[in-house]
Design a protein that fits this description.
The protein is mainly beta. The protein is elongated. The two termini are 19 Å apart.
Amino acid sequence: EHHQSYPGRVHGGMISCMLDELIGRAVWIIDPTIWGVTMTLNVKFRKPVPYNQKLKAIGRITNVKSRAFEGIGELYDMDGNLLASAEAVYYKLPLDKISDEDTHEDVNIYVPDNVTDID
């Protein structure tokens, strides 16, 4: 409710943030030592995103280069309707260039494709 745009809708900036984080962290499946710094983010808002409802998000890495990676993210409601999508490009950096912490396990939650209900 604190991040609504119009009543009952999540603000587009928050949706962009969710998709940016989703895509940027998807690279951990390929290489858990790499973090991405956003270079470009292109978001398409397809339907209103309600708040106080469960959503499903999918992030995919589509291209990996020596210094950058690209990916897509999609945000769905629990009925499978596509609410928003994004394409992004990230500059690759190792964790020690971004943070003094030595892990990201506490901020990353991986959910297998066959899980439909997440608490």
